[in-house]
Amino acid sequence: MIGQAIADGFLTGAILALGALGASLGMQILRFANFSHAELLTWGAYIALTFTSFATAGAPLGPFSFGWQLLVAMLIAGVATGGVALVVDRLVFARLRARHAHTLTMVFASFGVALILRNLVLLLWGPDAHYYSTELQIAVEVLPGIRLLPDQVFVLVLTLLLVVALHLVLRLSRLGMALRAMAESPMLARVCGIETGQAIRWTWMVSGMLAAAAGVFLGVTVQLRPEMGFSLLLAVLTAAILGGVGSVFGAVVGGLAVGLAENLSVLVIPTGYKEAVPFLLLMVVLLVRPQGLFGDRISA
Question: Where are the alpha helices (DSSP H) in the chain?
């Protein structure tokens, strides 16, 4: 039972890690906690659902419950969700930055944006739950006493690939250098010739794409609901803060830690209290080590 709970915790943690990566980038470069970030998970999941609904039906890929349509839908959802994030920035946050708004003003504005995005999902797709596929799967035993669905193995492997890809982008590319410079000091980055506006736009784009991937993975392993992003908000922010804002490795560790804590907690407390675990972790982190486990700047 403990082994299965740990496996489920890794699965939850992988999804949280992707969400936390986007939130961490935003907090470090944009300099505020964006509470609307979790709603981008929902938008990414539903945009992918829209594409799969109109795409030609095909046979599932191997042991998975989905076909090639979902893989293409993930790419489309990533770009489209990044576009949604850019529109939100252009309409709301860019205007506040131009007025040199206080950080708290940005945070409160993100609450309003979150409500708008959530209600737009309700308006466009309705309140009912949706699924990417109705194909039945049989769990396979990956280790003694631990069983996972093929879809869950796919999510774990693809999450690892996305984290490695982001690490390489931040470490080796010109874009990564610009983002790290912005995280260190926007003023010095501007002096060094870095176009800060473009770096901010890429921050929104990358954050939106990571959120979309997390949303699609959540939809693949569970289901799609209009409140799916909101239900992960506290866990995602806790993972980002626990790992250390701006640290790719820290966001992954934070996501896995929160996922494991949530799933192991149900062994000793009623399931209904599971969502309180991230809140308790967040309080402990803020009291003991507010800067998180792995520093306070973007590191690959």
Answer: 2-29, 37-54, 68-88, 94-98, 103-125, 150-172, 174-184, 186-191, 196-221, 228-243, 248-265, 277-288
pTM of the model: 0.91
With respect to residue 153, please indicate whether it lies within any of the assigned structural domains.
yes
Separation between Cα atoms, residue 33 and residue 113, nearest integer Å: 13
How confident is residue 50, by pLDDT bands cut at 50, 70 and 90?
Answer: very high
Q: Is residue 294 part of a domain?
A: no
pLDDT in tens, 202-232: 999 999 999 999 999 999 988 899 999 999 9
Please indicate, yes or no, if residue 293 is contained in any of the structural domains: no
Distances (CA, A) of 58 to 75, 205, 250: 18, 30, 39
Instruction: Provide the domain count of the chain.
Output: 1
Name which of 10-14, 53-57, 73-77, 151-155 the model is least confident about. Answer: 53-57
What is the residue range of 279's domain? Answer: 2-288
Residue 258 located in a structural domain: yes
